Amino acid sequence: MATMGAVYPYGRLLQTARTGIAFVPRRTLTYSLPRRSQQDGNNGPNDKPEDQSKPSALSSIKDFFFGGRSAAAKPKITRRATAPPKREGSLSADSIFAEDEATPKLIASGRTPAARKGAEVVEGEEEMVYEVESRNRGNMAAVLDPRPKARMRWERKMVVRELRRRGRLTKTEQIMRTERESLSKSHWFKTSVKKLGPLARQIVGKNIDEAMLQMRFSKKKAAKDILEHLQHAKNVAIVRSGMGLGEATGDKPVTVTLKSGERKKIFNPSSIYIDQAWVNRGPYGVDYDHRARGQINRLRPPYTSLTVLLKEENTRIREWQDRESEALRKRKAQLWTQLPDRKISAQNQYYSW
């Protein structure tokens, strides 16, 4: 009866039967880390010179039976050299940050790591110097100017437009250059359009401070979120657009008539007011309503945001003046009276009195 212990004797029998095959017993697989060898140099921390190493008793016995020590030196393990230092980039030739003379590179002062002290420059390699003029403009044009023909057409179009207008600006361009405005959109409020719409219509046309006062004393739940958004919108308009920084003049206030027919006195032409406010429908969330008998209803709470467009009172004054001038022009156009429908023979070019 064959057992596991009989595997090894079977190998011996096979070896005696076939003399040309050498028997190799089974052994476990092992893995050793690959190491690079070098014939000369002491780079390891435990490496010692050959003359300082002392022969042991076992090594002397090996030398007696198998011969003396070979004259060739044993290979020794070396450490991998450190990576070369990184080189700093350079600017293009026409960059506004480029200087006439290259400034010295910044070198870290103070204590440096111990590994960097032993780093040496490899012999035969020269340090490459990258000058500003060595940039290839052809490679950079692929990103800076991807469509040169389209750019040239656009530049030509702009030049022709300026020549036709003789440097005069349109009314829209003049308004955008002289008047300030700021558009601010809020985050998503957990409310519906039906609830947020009346609050948006309530603050339209009011001064920013008056609208914030309205939301502060409002009983609506969404009024608190609108108040925070109006405060943020006011700060953004002041910091980014420079709105509301003027002082009230000592002259008499300007009385304007709004589109709704309401009369309003403006004391400070640079004060901020809400020109437009609209509601944006957002995504729907997921909520659950636990009912009796273990039933659960799935709810879809809506999310809505508010967007406000802030302008200065100068814009309101200009719009009122435009409406007044248009109405005056229409009234003057109606002053001309058509001649009565008479026969040509009965009409005379001179007055009859």
TrEMBL record:
A GO CC term assigned to this protein in UniProt: large ribosomal subunit
Gene3D superfamilies, per database record: Ribosomal protein L22/L17 (3.90.470.10)
GO biological process, one term: translation
Record-linked InterPro entries: Ribosomal_uL22 (IPR001063), Ribosomal_uL22_bac/org-type (IPR047867), Ribosomal_uL22_sf (IPR036394)
Keyword terms: Ribonucleoprotein, Ribosomal protein
The keyword Nucleotide-binding belongs to this UniProt entry's keyword annotation: no
Keyword Lyase: no
Comp. bias regions, Polar residues: 32-45
Region (Disordered): 32-56, 73-95
Coiled coil: none
Gene Ontology MF: a single term: structural constituent of ribosome
Pfam families listed in its UniProt record: Ribosomal_L22
Family (UniProt): Belongs to the universal ribosomal protein uL22 family.
Name of the protein in question: Mitochondrial ribosomal protein subunit L22
